[in-house]
TrEMBL record:
GO terms for molecular function: DNA-3-methyladenine glycosylase activity; metal ion binding. PANTHER family: DNA-3-METHYLADENINE GLYCOSYLASE 1, DNA-3-METHYLADENINE GLYCOSYLASE I. One of its GO terms (biological process) is base-excision repair. The keyword Metal-binding applies. This is DNA-3-methyladenine glycosylase I. The keyword Membrane does not apply. It comes from the Bacteria. It comes from Billgrantia montanilacus. SUPFAM superfamilies: DNA-glycosylase (SSF48150). Pfam families: Adenine_glyco. Keywords: Metal-binding, Zinc.
């Protein structure tokens, strides 16, 4: 079965974006485009952690609720959360109410501050794990890579939680460290152009 499907404009897109109406805009404007903004990177890694065991549709539908609950994923603010905030979040029906995942976000916010102090930015650290383009791997055919395994191990070593290799690989796909749009997808060339002109962040 092909990984492509015609979009509303008749142009070919990744098949997965037809699964839910909200996926189309996400696919066309966000997924795979390179990101260097620390807050967006932190948000995505947190949301991928919340997705563990669930569908991305569930998380995407609740994304604005997550943003409101976690102050726009400002990790300097989240790092100050205490047990009262955990209880507040556990009582919020607009998000996924999972104690372990909520506590992981707070923990990871504290680790993020440490990373920024050491590396200059989260982006500088994450983009260090950008893989070289692979010519012999079909897009969307794998769920982990050597780089996602290495990044997962590095994050865990520094105390991050809910950052397994599959979660990290999905993060890398979404944040543009990999162009995993299907061959023939109309957005693939747009992402590739964005990646070619993207200024890779370096440690400050």
């Amino acid at each position: 079965m092909t990984n492509l499907i015609p979009g509303p404009d008749g142009r070919q897109r990744c098949r997965w974006c037809s699964v839910a109406p909200e996926f189309l805009a996400y696919h066309d404007t966000e997924w795979g485009f390179p990101v260097s903004d620390d807050r967006r990177l932190f948000e995505k890694l947190c949301l991928e952690g919340f997705q563990s065991g669930l569908s991305w549709r569930t998380i995407l539908a609740k994304r604005e609720n997550f943003r409101a609950a976690f102050y726009g994923f400002d990790f300097t603010r989240i790092a100050q959360f205490d047990h009262h905030d955990v209880e507040r979040l556990l009582g919020d029906p607009g998000i996924v109410r999972h104690r372990g995942k909520i506590e992981a976000v707070i923990n990871n916010a504290r680790r993020a501050i440490e990373f920024v102090e050491r590396e200059g930015s989260l982006a500088a650290f994450f983009w260090r794990y950008e893989p070289a383009p692979l010519q012999d791997v079909e897009p969307q055919s794998v769920s982990t890579s050597a780089e996602s395994i290495a990044l997962s191990k590095a994050l865990k070593k520094q105390g991050w939680k809910f950052v397994g290799p599959t979660t990290v690989y999905a993060f890398m796909q979404a944040m543009g460290l990999i162009n995993d749009h299907a061959m023939g997808c109309v957005v693939r060339d747009e992402v590739e152009h964005a990646r070619l002109t993207f200024e890779r962040p370096v440690a400050g």
